[in-house]
Write a structure and sequence with these properties.
The protein has 124 residues and is mostly helical. Helix content is 57%, strand content 11%. The protein has one domain: 5'-nuclease (Rossmann fold, 3-Layer(aba) Sandwich).
């Protein structure tokens, strides 16, 4: 599964991101990541070019929605992180719980994912 930070690294040409992406049989993208990419698109200087890149990436990925089981797991992980004083950004918490729910490793550049117990975090 890919996080937004991994997509940005891929788009910027980071070799390790490209290698991971190309080696994967399937690439899973949380709907949250797609939303973050579209938010970034609204701020960029080349919206047409970047929109095409996002569409190409989206076509290569399996888009993962948030379901009820993920929502329940989100609440558990949120509580654990809050009690530990180790909260991560809310969208990243959704992304982490989606990866955990589906038993997938999460490729990301943000080290705060390492705070999530039980997450198979693959750091770029």
């Amino acid at each position: 599964m890919i996080d937004t930070s991994a997509v940005i690294s891929l788009f910027r040409g980071l070799a390790s991101a490209g290698e991971c992406f190309n080696a994967a049989r399937e690439v899973w993208m949380p709907v949250t990541v797609l939303g973050e990419l579209h938010c970034g698109l609204r701020k960029c200087g080349c919206p047409v070019k970047e929109s095409l890149r996002i569409a190409e990436l989206r076509d290569r990925c399996l888009l993962i929605p948030i379901d009820e089981e993920t929502a329940m797991q989100y609440a558990r992980v949120h509580g654990d992180l809050e009690r530990a004083g180790a909260m991560i950004p809310i969208n990243d918490l959704w992304i982490a719980t989606l990866a955990m729910r589906h038993g997938l490793p999460l490729l990301a550049k943000d080290d705060h994912f390492s705070r999530v117990d039980g997450l198979d975090f693959v750091a770029l």
